[in-house]
Amino acid sequence: MASVDRPGSGGVLPFFVYGTLRPGEVNHDLFLRGRTAAEEPARLPGAALYEGPGYPYAVERAGSAIAGELITPAAEAYGELLRALDLLEEYAGPGSPRNVYDRVAREAVRGDGSRVRAWVYLAAAPLAHRLARTGTEIPGGDWLRR
Known about the structure:
Layout: E1 15-17, H1 26-32, E2 36-51, E3 56-73, H2 78-88, E4 101-110, E5 115-123, H3 125-134
């Protein structure tokens, strides 16, 4: 998986969130409350969801999809929110061996079927490979229904 966090390649995008950043979950209140312009249900095709220690990991996998929310940050909060979420998700930058998650741009699907490019944090490659072999998949790809 190639990260697309490079100047000119991603720009200002909404976020697709699928775990503790979803409405009603602890990190939504800590990081997103008061910083969003819109929040709507969405799905991320081409990904599966795995149990983590109190939070999930999304891993790329054809033929699967995960449930989540499409979060559009308030314009004035975007830069601060991007930095805060990168810290939360232990994302140090494209290709960093310290990454727990990689921030990548993917197409999410809104409830009406329209598609939108969004940032999503996927498990970094070494972790993704381990999860695919030995992880516990969340049936149906919905953290809130686990």
